[in-house]
Write a structure and sequence with these properties.
The protein has 63 residues and is mainly α. It has a domain of 30 residues. The protein contains two helices and no strands.
Length: 63
């Protein structure tokens, strides 16, 4: 019975701490985009990017 006097306040503090951490994560935007990072990992982005306009190729420069 005496252990309840210690365990109940500790559990209330733990719940309060978990609630504060959850509140901080929601406010800082941790749960804004849940599916985007998963799709970004599997997206095939291996296609070469076109050269920007005005860039000169070394082979065509004048040899």
């Amino acid at each position: 019975m005496e252990s309840l006097y210690l365990l109940i306040p500790m559990s209330v503090l733990l719940v309060f701490l978990i609630g504060m951490i959850f509140w901080w994560s929601v406010r800082s935007g941790q749960f804004d985009d849940l599916e985007g990072p998963g799709y970004r990992v599997v997206s095939d982005d291996d296609t070469p990017q076109p050269a920007p306009r005005g860039s000169v190729d070394k082979d065509k420069e004048g040899a």
